[in-house]
Design goal:
The longest helix is centred in the N-terminal third of the chain and has 53 residues. It is built from eight helices and 13 strands. Strands 11-12-10-9-7-13 form a six-stranded mixed sheet. The chain is rod-shaped, with a radius of gyration of 49 Å. The structure holds adenosine-5'-diphosphate (ADP).
Length: 476
């Protein structure tokens, strides 16, 4: 599965970017609007001062006529306008409070010297003042203004909408981004699940590419081509070791036969006989290694093509224990079998028997005389469990994983060392059956190997009863 953090990080960065852009856009909009509105008001008011001067200039000296002309033309009180005309600081005309009372003209100060041409925002109105020089050299100042409430409210409305819209937009963008990223990465999750399930027991499997977008699909195709190459290289190596092991088997059998023939000769000096016995033992050990190699290479390359047949686990358990009881007896070890009712699974009988043989052989090998080895079979609706437990020398925890690797042996563990392949073979067989093998052990307290196999369609067999313990071989 795709780590959640990747989706989270992508959406987080995407939303952060969106937030920064959103804030930038909002600031730009508010500042732009304010500037545009101010410029437009300034233009209108400056134009109006000109108009007022054209109307009022000729009437200077008759304040009543001046006021009447301005009132008639501009209706400042009704239209929420502010008009004031002064000469040399003496006010000749000033409009009254507007009907809507949205600003107070009496609170608007006279323009500062040199303040002509600029727009001020005072007492609820925008005001622009313009100076005009009279023929006698005096300076007349015309002020035109209008209420600022409309613009102020519009700007506040704009700010409020942006402040509300931004989180809403971010929420929608975040949720849809999350869904989109998850959808886009879903093929990667499928590929991860499929990759986890890939193993040498299913060499034909490949990563699913259906519905993948281009870069992920291309990656999947490359990985699948790499798997093809790995698979064929692995098949090649497996075939090579299988062939080599086969080639070694015949000469080894011949050497063993010849050695046995020489050993049988009656007139052999004692030291030659001892040397021959040692050579024969080593040859037999080599033979066992070669057999193990053949089995391992078959596990790797041919398992997938073998047929699965119903196998009665109870039957092979009791049969194997019976066949191996002599081995245990020789070492003065008790070998018990606790196989309950019949448990049938679809499997390869010979391979499962090999698992039991390897585990029992090890248990007997690594348990001192007088010890005890118990083989039991239990089952649940879904799983059949084979347990081989001994009270021998045990295995320290640092070896628990590695002993299932090929050629791994614990130095000096038992008297008779094998090739370190028995448990690797057992693990391969279990994996090929869709099962697993586990070890519980402490040095000096014996070892318990637990083989769990899926039961498939057959879930009818009841679990084993503890009263079913059958003593097969008893030492003193
Ligand atoms: P080998 O053919 O050498 O027995 P295995 O793969 O069967 O190889 O076992 C690997 C090693 O694991 C052995 O060499 C031994 O040291 C240890 N081992 C396996 N089974 C037991 C056991 N029942 N008790 C103690 N040690 C064991």
């Amino acid at each position: 599965m795709i780590p959640r953090s990747l989706t989270f990080r992508l959406v987080f960065w995407y939303c952060s970017l969106l937030f920064v852009l959103g804030v930038g856009f909002s600031v730009y909009t508010v500042v732009g609007f304010t500037r545009y509105a101010d410029a437009s008001s300034h233009r209108t008011l400056a134009g109006r001062t000109q108009e007022i001067w054209r109307l009022a200039g000729p009437q200077l000296g008759d304040n009543a006529a001046l006021a009447a002309a301005i009132e008639r033309r501009f209706e400042p009180e009704n239209q929420s306008r502010f008009i004031r005309l002064s000469v040399g600081g003496v006010v000749l005309y000033a409009s009254g409070p507007p009907v809507e009372a949205d600003f107070d003209p009496r609170r608007i100060p006279l323009p500062r010297p040199g303040g002509a041409g600029q727009m001020i925002d005072e007492a609820g109105a925008y005001v622009v003042a313009q100076d005009f020089t009279l023929p006698d050299g005096r300076v007349a100042t015309v002020e035109a203004g209008r209420r600022d409430a409309v613009l102020r409210e519009t700007r506040q409305g704009l700010e409020t909408s942006l402040i509300v819209a931004l989180p809403l937009l971010l929420g929608i963008a975040g949720a849809s981004g999350w869904l989109l990223v998850r959808r886009a990465l879903a093929p990667v999750s499928n590929m991860i699940v499929a990759a986890e399930a890939l193993s040498f027991n299913s060499p034909e499997k490949r990563l699913p590419l259906l519905g993948t977008l281009e870069p992920i699909g291309l990656l999947g195709q490359s990985l699948n081509r790499m798997l093809d190459r790995l698979d064929s290289a692995y098949q090649h190596v497996s075939q090579f070791s299988a062939d080599t092991a086969h080639e070694l088997r015949t000469p080894l059998t011949i050497i063993q036969g010849e050695l046995e023939l020489i050993q049988a000769a009656a007139d052999l000096p004692e030291h030659f006989r001892a040397a021959l016995t040692a050579m024969l033992q080593e040859t037999m050990r080599l033979g066992r290694i070669v057999e193990s190699l053949i089995t391992l290479s078959r596990m790797g390359s041919f398992w997938g093509k073998q047929a699965h047949l119903p196998v009665d686990l109870r039957e092979i358990t009791t049969e194997t224990v019976e066949q191996m009881h002599l081995l245990a007896e020789d070492k003065d070890i008790v070998l018990e079998c606790a196989a309950g009712d019949t448990v049938t699974i679809m499997a390869d009988r010979n391979r499962l028997k090999q698992v039991l043989v390897n585990l029992i052989d090890n248990a007997v090998k690594f348990t001192p005389p007088g010890g005890r080895v118990t083989v039991s079979l239990t089952s649940s609706a879904t799983t059949a469990t084979l347990i081989v437990a001994d009270n021998g020398i045990g295995i320290s925890p640092e070896h628990h994983t590695a002993i299932f690797d090929r050629s791994y042996r614990i130095g000096g563990g038992g008297g008779e060392l094998g090739a370190g392949l028995g448990l690797a073979i057992a693990k391969s067989i279990c994996a090929a059956h869709g099962g697993r093998i586990e070890l519980t052990s402490m040095p000096g307290h014996g070892a318990t190997f637990r083989v769990e196999l899926p039961r498939g369609l057959d879930g009818s067999s009841p679990a084993y009863r503890s009263s079913d313990v059958i003593r097969v071989a008893t030492g003193s």
